[in-house]
Amino acid sequence: xxxxxxxxxxxxxxxxxxxxxxSATINLDExxxxxxxxxxxxxxxxxxxxxxxxxxxxxxEKAYIKDSINEVDYxxxxxRLLKHYKTILGDESVAREFEDLDTFKRTWQIECPRATERxxxxxxxxxxxxxxxxxGRGTGMGGGMGGGGVGGxxxxxxxxxNGTAISDATENFITFLDALKxxxxxxxxxxxxxxxxxxxxxxxxxxxxxxRAKIVQWxxxxxxxxxxxxxxxxxxRDLGFDIEQAYYGFKATLR
Length: 255
Fold this sequence. Notes:
This protein has helices spanning about 40-65, 70-90, 90-100, 100-110, 115-120, 125-130, 160-180, 185-205, 210-225, 235-250; strands at about 140, 145, 150, 155. It is mostly helical.
């Protein structure tokens, strides 16, 4: 029993005989090129950037949840990553190879659930949840809705930074509704304008108000559309109604 010799777990010089027919047919010292053209190299570089954005965004979301990053830095970093993501996928060849987020994640075997949700929404959590407002209560707002649109203006009851923030928010409401009136129905026209609305509103008040959730929901809807897609006439009518109601709710918080 003690004289049994254990066999080697791997080939040894005494048990392995080289076979010339199995020798490598390429130069092992030569760099293997994954692409053959500049276009292919640019495509894979862009897909690698998308991959890094997703992974980085997931890490940023985790850091925010753990309170390892402050709200200002989180908002700035998250917004920058979301812009990079949209800019890269604005290239038709990249978007075609990318297909959609679920397909890309499955192809490259990544999960990143927090980044997936943030990319679906298209807004930092601080903007989505109005977590970083400056509190603009106590500043008056004159005027009202007239002729089916926003006709309000900043009243003289308040001044300084709060008055300016309210004025900016009102102007953004007006600009967005005017865009709908002149039938600017493309996603790449409406999404930036509606983003300006929610960001300016958050600078005025950190509290929730009637209609705010509708703004966020429409931002999510627009974010999931392709840049060249347009909303229908029925969607435009619903969107205009919801934003007007949100304006009324916003205005009510200032009284």
